[in-house]
Amino acid sequence: MRLLLVVALDGLTYASWLFLVSAGLTFTYGVLRVLNLAHGNLYALGAYLGATLVLSYAATGYTPALAYGLLFVAAVVVGLVVGPLIERVFLRRVYSRDEEVQLLLTFSISLILEDVVKLVWGVNPIFADMPYTYLGRVRLGGINYAWYPFLLTAIALAVGGLLWLVVTRTRLGKVLAAVIADREVSLTLGINVPRVYTWAFTAGAVLAALGGALTAPMFSLAPGVGAEVLVTSFAVIAIGGLGSIGGAALGSIIVGLARSAAVYFFPELDLFAIYLIMALVLLFRPQGLFGEIEVRRI
Amino acid sequence: MSRHSKVHSALLAAIGLGIFAGAAPAAPPAGAPAELKIAVVAFLSGPASGPFGIPSRNAADVWIEKINREGGIGGVKVVPVFTDEAGPADKVVTEFRRLALDEKVAAVMGYISSANCLAVPPVADELKVLTIESDCGTDRVFEEAKHPYVFRTNSHTVIDGVGAARYVLSLHPDIKTIAGINQDYAWGRDSWAVFQRSMRQLKPDVQVVDALWPKLFAGEYSAEISKLLVEKPTVIFTSFWGGDLVTFAGQAKARGLFDESMVVVNNTGADIKDIAPGVLIGSRGPNGIVTPDMEKNPLRKEFIELYRQKYGLAKNNYIAHGAYHYVQALQGLRAAYEKAIKAAGRWPTTEQVAAAFEGLEFDTPSGRVAMTIGGGHQAVQPAGYAVLKYDPALGVNVFSEIRMFPAKCVNPPDGMKSLDWIDRGFPGAQC
C-alpha cells in the first residue's frame, strides 16, 4: 500500500511536469496545425532566463519567496518577445505550404535558438535551485519529498483549468474553435485570423517558456536541454492526441505513472516504458486517445 | 651613444644571441615536414561540450602553444585542427576519414565518447593514421581487438569502478547493501558492471538491492530517488556526469538522500562545487582533484597556470578531467615522436612513431603514465578517491580522506580482460 502511494505520488508529480512542458506544444498544433520543433528551444530560453533572474535575485539577499514570481516573469518575457517574432516573421509565410516545409522551418529556428542560448549563456551548466530547496520537504509514505514538485502539480492544474476555461467558456474560445474548424469561413465572418494565429502561437510560446522556467530550479541547465524535452513531449501528445489539451493531460498522467511504475517494478524498462505505451496506444488509436481523425479537404 | 657603449651593446647583444642560440631547439631532422598537423577531436556542441569537450579543446590549445614555444615536436611546429565530435558514430568516422584524407593530418587525437572510441580504430588501422584516444572510458578498445595505429593515453574505466569499490570498503568495511543509479547507455552499464562485480569479489556477502537505469539527460529523478529512499542501501554508486550529476545531486540533497546512504560518484570534475558534502568522489583517474604528489608536479602547476591565463578559472574551481586527459595525449605524442626521431636519426614514419609509442612512459600533469597493457597501447594510471567536505572558511567543497590506489592495484595485467580479472579475484593486483 505504502509502495503504491509512493509510485502514485512520483507518477503524478512527473505527470505535472510533463503536462506543463507539452500543453503549449499541443495547443499550438491545435490552433495553427503546425508542429513546432522549436518548442523545446522556447522551453530552454524560459529555463535559462528564469535561472538567470533567480540567480541575480539570490545575489541581492532579499527573501527567496519572490523568486517564484521571477520564474513567471521569465516565461512571459520569452513568450511575448520570441513568440510573435517567430509567428509573424517566419511561420506566417508557410501556413499554406506542405507540412515538410513547416517542419524544416521550425527545425531551422530550433537550431538557431540552440546557438543563441550558447552565445548568451555559454556551455557551462547553470543551476538555480533556490526555489526548489527553499520550500523544504515533507514526509509522505515514510520518505522525504521536496515540496517544489507539488507546487508544480498545483500550477499544472491551474494552467490546465485556465486553458479549459478559455477554450470552452469564453468568446475567445469560440473564435479559436471557429478558426480551427475552418480558417476561410472564419475570415469571411470577420475574424482577424492572422491575429488569432499570432496570439495562439504566443500563448503556446509562453506555456513552453513557463514549463522551462518552472523546471529551472530542479534541473541543471546545459546545451541541448530543450531537445530532450521535445522528444518526451512528442510522446505525451502522440498518446493524448495532437492538438488536444485534455489529451495532453491524460497522456502526461499515463506516461508519468508508467515511468514511475517502471522504475519501481522493472527498472530495466525505465527508458523503454514511455515508448512502449506510445506504441500500444498508436497501434489501436493512431490518432491518439483524444485525437480526431482528420478529413482531408480537397 | 659613445663608441664604448656601442661596443658594449654589441657585445651584450652577441652574448644574448649566443645564449638564445644555445637555448633554441635543434634544427628539425632530415625529412621533417614544415608543420605537424594534428587533429584534436572533442565535443564542441551538445550536452557533453560544457563539462568535457570545450575544457578539453582549450587544454589542448594551451598545451600545443606551450609545445610550440619550446620549439615544437622534434623542431617542427604543431598545428591543431579542432573538430567537433558531436553526432552519431558514423558521422564521427566520416569526419575521421576527412581529417586523414583531406586535411592530411599526421595524427588524430581526442574522442570522449566510448562509442566513438570503438568506431574509430578499425578505420585508423585501415588508413594507417596514428590515433591517440584521449578521454573515453570503455575497456573494450584493446580487449576485443588489436589496433597497431591506435593508442589510448588515459586509463580505461576499470580503475574508476575497482578504485570506487576498494575505497568504499577501506572507509566502511561492514557494508551490507549496494545500489546503482546509472545512465542507460554504454558508460553507465560498463561503470556499474565493474563496480558491482568488484564489490562482490571484495566482499562476497554484499547484497545488490537495486540497479536503476534512467535515460541519459532524463533530468527528472523523483521516482528513482524515492525508490532509493525506500530501500536505504548502505552505498549508492553512480556514474552520472555533467548536468545529470548536478541535477541528481540537487534533487537528492533536497530530499535527504545523502543522509540515508553513502553516495559514490566515479566521474566528477569542475562540478564538485555543486555536489553535497559527504559524497565520495573520483575523477576518472588522478586528474586535477585527486593527484599523487600534486605539489611536487611542475607540469600540473604549469598547466593550471596556462589554462587560467588564457581561459580563466574561478578561485577554488577545478579543471575538468577531460582537459588533463588531452594534455596527457599530447605529452604521449611528443614523447613518442622524440623517441622515434632519436631511433631513426631522421623524421620517423608513422609506423616508427607507433613502434616508439608501444610501452612508452611519460610525465604528465596527472603524474607518470605508462602504456603497459593492451599490448603496450593502453595506459594505466592510479585511481584516486576522496570525500567531499565543506570548508566554511573557504566557502567551497574541499577533499578529505584522500586515497590513491596504485596502477597495478586497479588495472588488470596485460593480456587479461578486465571483467575476467575482477571475477577471478584480481590476480596479480599489487595494492
Folded structure, characterized:
The complex is a heterodimer of chains A (298) and B (431). Chain A is 73% helix and 3% strand. Chain A has helices at 2-32, 39-60, 67-90, 99-121, 130-134, 148-169, 171-181, 183-188, 193-215, 225-240, 245-265, 270-284, and strands at residues 137-140, 143-146. In chain A, helix 1 packs across helix 10 and helix 3 (67-90) packs antiparallel against helix 9 (193-215). The longest helix of chain A has 31 residues, at 2-32. Chain A is globular, with a radius of gyration of 19 Å. The termini of chain A are far apart. The model of chain A has no long low-confidence stretch (mean pLDDT 91). Chain B is α/β, with parallel strands linked by helices and 431 residues long. In chain B, 42% of the residues lie in helices and 19% in strands. Chain B is built from 14 helices and 15 strands. Chain B has helices spanning 3-23, 49-69, 89-101, 114-127, 158-171, 186-202, 222-231, 242-254, 257-260, 298-311, 321-344, 350-357, 407-410, 418-423; strands spanning 35-42, 77-84, 107-110, 130-133, 150-152, 177-181, 207-212, 235-238, 262-265, 280-282, 361-364, 367-373, 378-380, 383-391, 396-405. In chain B, the strands form 3 sheets. A 7-stranded mixed β-sheet of chain B has the order 7-6-8-9-10-14-15, sandwiched between helices. Classes of the chains: A mainly alpha (298), B alpha/beta (431). Chains A and B meet through helix 1, strand 2 and helix 11 of A and helix 2, strand 7, helix 7 and helix 8 of B.
Key attributes of the depicted protein:
heterodimer, A: 298 residues, mainly alpha, two-stranded antiparallel ribbon, 73% helix, B: 431 residues, alpha/beta, seven-stranded mixed beta sheet, five-stranded parallel beta sheet, 14 helices, 42% helix, disordered N terminus
